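Folds vary. Our protein:
___
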Amino acid sequence: MEISIPVFIVLAIVYFVAAHIGLYKMFQKLGYKGYEILIPFYGTHLAVKTIKKSFWWTIIYYVPFLGFVVWMGIIVELMKLFGKVKFTEHFLGVVFTGIYLPYIAFQDDFKFIGYEEAAKYKKSKRREWTDAIVFAVIAATLIRGLYMEAFTIPTSSMEQKLLVGDFLFVNKMAYGARVPNTPVSFPFTHHSFPEWVPIVGGSQSYTEIIKFPYTKLPAMGEVERNDCVVFNFPAGDTVALEHQNQVYDQLVRDYGRDFVWKNFTIKGRPADKQENYIKRCVGLPGDKLQIVDTKLMINDAAAYFDENAQFTYKVVTDGTGFNEKMLQKKGITTEPVQKISDYGEYELTLTDEAVEKVKQFSYVKSVERNVEPLGYVYKFQNQPVFPNDTAYNWTRDNFGPMVIPEKGMTVDLSLNNLPLYKRIIHNYEKHELKVTDGKIYIDGVEATSYTFAMDYYWMMGDNRHNSLDSRYWGFVPEDHIVGKAVFVWMSYDAQLGRIRWERLFSLVH
């Protein structure tokens, strides 16, 4: 059941009014004039004073989100003054305030018992632990959902800027924290319970009984070109559960829809429950983007290229092999060395600096960057490069040119350029899209142009030849943006079995 923002606002106002009707009656029974609790700021000060808490409670009450925690404390402490001390009573008072408070406040036996009597109540150890756990879960959920969240780098797509085994914090307020699309979910899970959890391991950990449309809170700033951005994987709106690390649409292109649906479990996911990816935002809304022989061009100028970015190279030796651990310890590469042939041909993943180091090895004859030309034929995949259509001969290393869609921008639609925009029109902006007799129909009406309702971004990994990024699945909609990578707080190298002490608490620039 999707609730629109206007409807949600109306329901919130009704709930707010109902809760304050209960508070109005409670304060009358405390000896105040009921309307005093309704006066902004003063009412909060009065409530804090009544429960004998620090003035800091009043100040923190008006801090976004943290104020919710203070509000819970105020409700619980007020209820204690009326003899309501059970966990279930406090739970109902906090979770169903607009219903429970009016219900109990207007009962004749609901009376102020006095501070001395209320102070006699002592929590059991069990109750103290229960309250502490509930408070911690609620506070951590708020922080995780709206302020800051920890992420782990699982793949090498951003090496060597971000390494496999890096643990980093992501600032969700940087671009405006999103109101969850699916707010009803189990705490500390993303879309599924961990596999090790008994009975429910691996199963869905959220429900779509309540759904909110895309809405975000005020932002600290906009997404800037070259930011390291965490976002929900756009092509993850449909997944094969047995192959969640692969793009569903690519599976269909390679094996056919009937085979995929017959052999795999197919699942649809809302935007906020799609996998979290981290890439560099190389293209902003309205940018012209092109890749020429691995060189990224933005608005016809050479784009920023991080000194840690890397490509794969064909390295020819006199027959001598490479010691992988030695290469890793010297920081030359973090990827496995691939042997191409028995004639001294290897594939290494290298930065520009590492290329120069490898050239100095006495047994190395040549080092040449791998480049896929336009029209390159992929042996094991069918049209893996965006827009995944035979009309385009783009590759990972020669791509475009094209313009990244911007909110309010209008493009002429044709059968030739429809592959670029069909996922935007149908999947992201939720229109019915059909092609009949060579004509394009949007929501049943013939269309020769389209105006975009959202901004879109282009994300690429710094490990350019080992990154599943926008070159393969296209644009990232603004409603999929999660936050900005801030700093690495922990880093563990599983291959070498050591903590990377030099990376701890390092900023992500």
